Amino acid sequence: MIILGIDPGIAIVGYGIIECNGNSFKALEYGAIITEAGTPFPDRLKIIYEEMSCIIEEYSPEDMAIEELFFNKNVKTAIKVGQARGVEVLAAVNKGIDIYEYTPLQIKQGVVGYGRAEKAQVQEMVKMLLNLKEIPKPDDVADALAVALCHGYSLKFKEMFKMK
After folding, report:
1. pTM for this structure?
2. Does residue 63 carry a catalytic annotation?
3. Is 67 a catalytic residue?
């Protein structure tokens, strides 16, 4: 199974595509969609949608796993990131891909085994689990791979216990 993991954003959208085969995971591709701050907001959304659509077209993931948003201070930023997240989800829905959402706590639990793990611990586990030479940069890319891994482990858990 091929999973597309997304760390949502407007300036930087981290993405990671992994392949799950039995109990092993392999990174197929990872990177970031970057939009410039001075670009009009609707154009930034268009860039994200078009690049996300190209990634989906090229790798044909079966599932998209995306991090749920959590903001407690800047409402304006939260709204913009929420709109970008909607565009990211729309790109997948338009290609018939199932969408799964995970909280930061679930992602840390799934990848590290501890829901309060530090960012550095998650990044190191991503590197180890996917047998990468170095931790992907920027952080959003490593986060996206962590989301994809979390979904992969969730599927394995459900399969193990024959859950739906």
Report:
1. 0.93
2. no
3. yes
